[in-house]
Amino acid sequence: MSSWMNMEKFLREYVYQVETDFSVDGESASWAPTRDRPAHRFWDDEDDKIDLRFSNNESSRLSSFAVSHDEKYVAYSDGSIVGVSNIETRAQRTLFRGLTLPCVNLMFSPALNESGGYTLLLLQSSLYPVMSEMNDFLNIGPESPLLEMVRQGYLKTLEKLRASVESRNLPNIPGCTSGFGSNPSTSDGRLFLYLIQNETTQSGSRPAAELPKVIVHDVVNNRLLHTLSGHEDAIMWTAFSPNDQYIATAAWDGTFRIYNVSSGDCKHIIGPTGGQCWSGAWSPDSKHILLSGMTDEGEGEGFRNNTFVAVYSVETAQQINRFKHERLRSWVRCVAWSPKGDIAIVHETNLWIWDPFENEIVSEFSLKIDDRMMGGFAGFRKVQWVNNGDVLIVRAGDGTVEVWDRVGNTKYRLQRPKGSGIERDIRAVQWIQKDKTLRTLSSDGFMRMYRFA
Fold first, then answer.
1. pLDDT tens digits, residue range 230-273?
2. pTM to 2 decimals?
3. pLDDT tier at 1 (50, 70, 90 boundaries)?
4. Percent of residues, the chain, with pLDDT higher than 70
5. For the segment 282-296, what is each residue's pLDDT rounded down to a tens digit?
6. In the chain, at which end, N or C, are there fewer CB atoms within 10 A of the end residue's CB?
7. What is the rounded average pLDDT for all residues in the chain?
8. For the segment 342-374, what is each residue's pLDDT rounded down to a tens digit?
9. Ramachandran assignment for 166, one of left (phi > 0), alpha (psi -120 to 50 degrees), beta (any other)
10. 21 within 8 A of 350, measured Cβ to Cβ
């Protein structure tokens, strides 16, 4: 067993291996039938790719991506610049440099403004006026260190000016969004959730007015609709219900809350559980909710608290069933409720498909890990249902992507090859069911297409 581990060492030494494969009624999934290309592919064996980089600099890294709801456009950012390109034509439609703070996330909203989109203004300027003035009055040449100081100051001033002009007509939201599978937007995109004062109180208490709060923002009218209070520690997860009637939250104060969207009133407080609360998922009909966190019921191996994953009735706040498994020993922060009614629960290198009403595991998937320290890096990072719940996509810590079609009980895999020098990070994936194509968006600035049909 390794005495230490970091990402570079993990990627150099790790070999992806499946211990338990997906199954239906006890029959393991088989490789999907394909015509020209195998169902088991590897990185850089793509059929096509789109260059989204802002320059040809190979060291330039993209940090966030989003694909529009109609799958026509992709937005991408390196933190300081945001671009939007047409996926079909590959034409860059927008380039926005007016960021006064780094971009950490991107999300398309179904709500459109009156013109059906956005217009961004880019400004360009020259240093020649400053250089001319310095020569005329101070007799300083263009290579002078003093001129370089003025040049840098002038560039910063121009950057601030450009940012102000470019962003003057854009809504400015003074907060942050939550993570762990949060859904901060209503189905029509008219309302949006963000957090303010969301620093933890574990280092010291604060007055109620300074505690974390959820802001419900009306995107269409650009106004604050509600301020949701009550949590006493950092809020980790927020989500609108599919019918847009409720908002659920999970926080480190050990409670989950359900609010009414129309009034902003708190309908239920579930907890305290005795430990930090992390995430959740709504049922497709909005009548139930899965909540995950930690509880003080006993001692878990290597952890102070035991893992808590349970389904509740939204109407009564009564627990329906609680998921339990011998391998469940730490946080569950990645879950997805299928339109078919069952739930994908990810925990380290394990994934279970759980029927919450029958309280039974209908399928599972796990990786073979001999080194516990390596397992911390190999664990699943993202799980999502697509194609109305018929297809499950799960992304592992090394970047390998599994696609399981449970209707035909067939599978596809896009695997990271073993070895160093392949540290490209897949930030997002998208499955196109009609032509069995997997799109990957990577930090090296490329969208790659792997066609399995």
1. 999 999 999 999 999 999 999 999 999 999 999 999 999 999 99
2. 0.83
3. low
4. 80
5. 999 999 999 999 987
6. N
7. 83
8. 999 999 999 999 999 999 999 999 999 988 888
9. alpha
10. no
Amino acid present at 55? S
